[in-house]
Amino acid sequence: MNSSFMKPLVVLAVPGLYLFYKYNQYRRQQQERQRRKVTEKELLALNQKIDKLLQKLEEHEPDMAGSKDEECVICINAKAQMQTYPCGHKVVCRKCFVKTIQMAVSQRCLPLRCVICRTRILKLKQSTIM
């Protein structure tokens, strides 16, 4: 092809590509803003549910630890009932664990991690009350 023919095409294509790039950038920003709005609403709803759960937990007397090994490492009062996996630590009571979740959600420090070894919590088990 003749180079004199290609020159106008290149001159037209470069601004077109730039406009296409800017349009896609704008669309991505809009989608991100929309995603954040939804996420903020979900986090607000989750915080409200956590507040209700904490109110219910406040109504009940915590199970007292029978020994130093059974006590919650956070409040040092109630019996540790929540066991985290894969690490297997059982060092936190229900109320303190819910407060930990609330703090992690409000500070956007997710996923949750074990308070002892900082391993990512993949599974949670509540021990039976005896």
Automatic annotation (TrEMBL):
PROSITE patterns: ZF_RING_2
Domain (RING-type) ranges: 72-118
Record-annotated membrane-spanning stretches: 6-23
UniProt GO molecular function: zinc ion binding
Organism: Branchiostoma lanceolatum (Common lancelet)
Coiled coil: 29-56
Alphabetically ordered keywords of this record: Coiled coil, Membrane, Metal-binding, Transmembrane, Transmembrane helix, Zinc, Zinc-finger
Name of the gene this protein is made from: Hypp5599
Protein name per UniProt: Hypp5599 protein
Pfam families, per the entry: zf-C3HC4_3
